[in-house]
Design goal:
Order of helices and strands: HHHH
Shape: globular
Oligomer: single chain
Largest sheet: none
Length: 85
């Protein structure tokens, strides 16, 4: 991964994962909408030659799969309902 927008995307996906993990004890509950908006904005900025697997994960809102993919851990992803990893 060497595209700057992919680095920003990974940071945003990591922030989302950490925020979701903290939800059970968080008071007040964090607003996730800005994080989702940021992820959508970054996904739209990806170059045309972005790997179709990453684009698929983002299109399907499979943010954990997208994060693992960007971390080089795509092999850990489980096959989804669409039969795509």
């Amino acid at each position: 991964m060497n595209v700057p927008v992919e680095n920003e995307l990974l940071a945003a996906l990591t922030q989302l994962a950490e925020t979701v993990k903290s939800l059970p004890g968080a008071q007040p509950k964090p607003d996730l909408l800005p994080l989702f908006a940021r992820l959508d904005e970054l996904a739209h900025r990806l170059p045309r030659d972005t790997d179709p697997t990453l684009l698929h994960y983002l299109h399907k809102k499979s943010y954990e799969k997208a994060r693992l993919y960007l971390q080089g851990r795509d092999a850990e992803n489980q096959v989804g309902n669409c039969r795509h990893v």
